[in-house]
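re the bet — no i am not wrong, look at it urself. input seq straight from the record:
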Amino acid sequence: MELKFTDAERAFRQEVRDFLAAELPQEVRDHMIAGKSPTKQMVVDWQRKLNARGWAAPEWPVEHGGPGWTPAQKYIFREELQMWPAPSPLGFNINMCGPVIIQFGTEAQKQRFLPRMRNLDDWWCQGFSEPGAGSDLAGLKTRAVRDGDEWVITGQKTWTTLAQYADWIFVLARTNPEAKKQEGISFFLVDMNTPGITVRPIITIEGGHEVNEVWFDEVRVPAENLVGEVDKGWDCAKFLLGNERFGQARVGASRERIRRLKTLARETEDGGRPLIEDPEFRRQVTEMEVELKALEMTVMRVIANETKRAGSGKPDPATSVLKIKGTEIQQGVSELLMKAAGPYAWVDGDPEAEGSNDWDVAPDWAFGLAGIYFNWRKQSIYGGSNEIQRNIMAKAFLGL
């Protein structure tokens, strides 16, 4: 079954492809095809090209620099970037904090922060999770106390992705310790250069530095950096998390990885014949493709409902479905890539680096697959664990 697009939408898809072919450096594309995350400079350079074209903030309204696309155009753009593949606009800026400021922020906050977010003049990170308050986000203990024209923030955030690059962080902090868990929380914008902030790296299982601890030791934040009302930050958080979960479907990225998997399976022999001819392996790949098609149809249904929900300020509970299936598919594809590599899936590092000669027999594409596999276990946890998403769905759809 094929999704049907209009002639205008197909022409738009070609326009996006032409732009990618002309503007994205081949070395960036090759870097990402190999399964590596883009470097900071790759992301910055690419987002500024997108911003110059007016494409850096697909979901934003026109008055704040968005392109004015239809839901179908937004979907096509996101899918093409992921399939090429190319770096996506930085999610912390474009899909998380930016929409919160548009929805809940003051006019002064919009004018100050949004243009710099679009052009990636400021790199943002997310200060939500804490030790003991990850999936139970409302259990956070970081506190903010009003002192004249400032708020004083003290506490710890953890698993803060790419905080080592960040200029700013958006922070949830408890402003009323007497209130119920979801109440008494406020949403702040904090300059990472403020005295009292310490960033400490967390090295993940594959040896990468992607996440961090961020400590706040009586960090003073101007009162005008509060977003929305005092004690109403949970509304901002729910709105943000709904946008984040929608993006985690990553249909285009999974399609590109499955395409690469099938290509590699045709080139890899198992028992004297191409792996793609193995009936069990073919069954597993086909099953993954069917699940991806079902996910794609669900994404389109959510997109179709966007207009009806416009202005509600509340996330569509169906984004929980996208988060669950999207992350499960990405994890499943990484497992199949490990199977395709066989015993070479455990080689690590750079195949061209000194000291890698012990693995001369291993194909270059196998290097680092194990790291990707283990790193992607996190996908079903961050953004609200898949178990939490099932609870949201049970409440929204079944009334449980």
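see?? The chain has three domains: 7-89, 124-232, 248-398. told u. also The chain has a mean pLDDT of 89. so pay up
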